[in-house]
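Example 3.2
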Amino acid sequence: SAFKGAYRKAAVLSSRDQVMDRVRAFLTAYAALVDKEPAQAQELFRALKNAVAGPKYERAREAALRIWTSPAKIGFGKEYCSVLNEVLRRDEPGEALDAAAVLVRIMNRLLVVYHDTGVERVWPPNYVTFRGTSMPADQVTFFKQDRVYRSPMMLATSFSRAPADFFLRMAPPDRTPVLFRFWLDPDDRCDHAYYIERLTTVSGEK
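Structure, written as tokens:
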């Protein structure tokens, strides 16, 4: 994938200021990619910058994960996590994907288990998580029993079904509501997952 090449050369950031500089570049590149105005990128950037004010988010990895949870839709009419995931799914070489790779790489400093995060991992009851979403009907048929696939984006799930049900109810009329259940192996668990309740801007989603 184009992302793999971009990720391989992505810089590892160390501070909140570096993260926000890269977020600004990413949003500006995204605006150009989808024929939006630079001012729209700046609107969303200001909202994200406010979300990481204070000493708790001075380190790059905490700042990067914090803004990923922001519910702000100002600017593009969609959340930052949706913008980032759109670029990851497109997998088109260019400035937007290069900046996205840097932001994903720094989030992985917390998400991926082989990094020494210094934070104890928390696992869901019965090792099951939930995700509520919607998709076009023709994409639903992709999912078959025993099919193995890799998600080409950052993937949020919840320890609780309630947030998943909330997103199911938000499905637009032209899309199919879909509930995903994720069963983690109780022994192997998962090497690239992290419980972000302590960092999220939307507490209680677990």
